[in-house]
Design goal:
single chain; about 350 residues; alpha/beta; Thrombin, subunit H; 2 domains; 9-stranded mixed sheet; 6 helices; globular
Length: about 350
């Protein structure tokens, strides 16, 4: 299986640069995974395709303002930090630009000394281990100094930080948003519950590996990044009860999908708990837990389009993407949505 098998032509003007004012106003493509048939709707129509007794699974991670701009002490050279993974209370794995300005033992100053980071180690891919020093609560300092780490294909400034958060975001820790969930409003979720659809939550802290291109031609040689996940007891019970009753499990986003499929046993049952997952889902994978997927339109040759192709079939997905380009759907993080169902 070749990475180039998942390529498609995408005009740059279709890459959404800003979110729509109304979350539910985005377009929605319905893709029936068996015949591959396509319908065009709007996201507020999603409620009509969710049935009583089904379960919608949402990732309630919250994006941290993980991009920091500081100066090397004492020389004053400008340095950018991107926080990736918290290793200990004050220690993070960090991506640094430019890397040559961040040697072991160097100190970077942020916000005129509100935050200081000392480079403790250099690890694979040039990432750094950084120990921070500050007064008070780290999250409050970060909220004051940090910026949202928008994907590299978004060039417009985000006016409202909350538009890169889902309305149900809860647990801080992501370097990127679980973007399929950006389409939901609290009102729509309430209407979905009133219809008799169960809602369960998982937490997966999204890493920047989400945006990392697949650099090998043989898909099987790709080294998948690891991400931390957790599932609460009550949410595992909701999912398992729906599964036992014959209802459908519909994941919102590839992150929810990867969490569920990492955790599920051969019968599709979920265990409460936490851990790290580097599951790589591509065509040929046999899904254990999920039956449907609500997702955005993904980058060519990405692990995300491979996951979607595993669920709906590569030809169906590429045909759907060709149709989306023709119909001028908006792509990627702030773009439109697709519901893969049967």
């Amino acid at each position: 299986m070749k990475t180039s098998d998942f390529s498609f032509e995408l005009p740059e003007e279709l890459i959404a640069q800003v979110p729509l004012k109304d979350r539910i106003a985005s377009r929605l493509m319905l893709l029936d995974k068996e015949p591959g048939s396509i319908e065009h709707k709007h996201f507020y129509d999603i409620i009509n395709y969710l049935n009583r007794g089904d379960c919608l699974v949402l990732n309630n991670t919250r994006v941290i303002p993980a991009r920091l701009f500081g100066e090397k002490h004492p020389s004053g050279g400008r340095v950018e930090f991107l926080l990736l993974t918290r290793i200990a209370a004050k220690t993070w794995e960090v991506l640094v630009k430019p890397g040559k300005k961040a040697k072991i033992g160097d100190t970077i100053i942020f916000g005129q000394g509100l935050l200081r980071g000392e480079i403790k180690d250099i690890i694979e891919d040039g990432k750094r281990i950084v120990e921070f020093k500050y007064e008070g609560i780290f999250e409050e300092v970060l909220d004051q100094l940090g910026e949202m780490p928008l994907p590299p294909y978004i060039h417009e400034k985000l006016e409202d930080k909350e538009r890169y958060q889902t309305v149900y975001s809860k647990h801080e820790g992501s370097a990127a948003a679980p973007t399929a969930g950006l389409h939901f409003t609290r009102e729509l979720l309430r209407e979905i519950e009133e219809k008799g659809v169960k809602i369960a939550y998982v937490t997966l802290h999204v890493g920047l590996g989400t945006f990392r291109p697949v650099k090998v031609e043989n898909v099987l040689e790709h080294d998948m990044h690891s991400e931390f996940y957790s599932i609460e007891e009550e949410d595992a019970k909701v999912i398992n009860d729906v599964k036992k009753a014959g209802g459908k499990i519909i994941a919102v986003g590839t992150t929810s999908t990867r969490t569920l499929e990492s955790n599920a046993d051969d019968m599709g049952m979920i265990k409460a708990g936490s851990g790290w997952t580097n599951i790589f889902i591509y065509p040929g994978y046999r899904f254990k837990c999920i039956d449907g997927l609500i997702t955005n339109f993904h980058l060519p040759e990405s692990t995300l389009i491979m996951l979607v192709s595993a669920l709906a079939g590569k030809e169906n997905v590429l045909d759907a993407y060709k149709e989306a380009v023709k119909e001028k759907y908006r792509f990627f993080s702030f773009g439109d949505a697709m519901f893969i169902h049967d």
